[in-house]
UniProtKB/TrEMBL annotation:
Keywords: Lipid-binding, Transport
Any GO BP: lipid transport
Source organism (scientific name): Aegilops tauschii subsp. strangulata (Goatgrass)
A Pfam entry, by short name: Tryp_alpha_amyl
Name of this chain's protein: Bifunctional inhibitor/plant lipid transfer protein/seed storage helical domain-containing protein
């Protein structure tokens, strides 16, 4: 991911649990692609 993408993810990091609990966005947070992207950006997904 680009530096801008990682920056946007870091800015929204505090909302990950809210996104995960939302039926619309939860599937995106649980996606293997999301996990790989945040890992590449050096961000840990929280355990909600």
């Amino acid at each position: 991911p680009s530096a801008a993408c990682c920056s946007n993810l870091r800015a929204q990091q505090g909302c990950f649990c809210q996104f995960a609990k939302n039926p619309i966005y939860g599937r995106y947070i649980q996606s293997p692609y999301t996990r790989q992207t945040v890992s590449t950006c050096g961000i840990a997904l929280p355990h909600c």
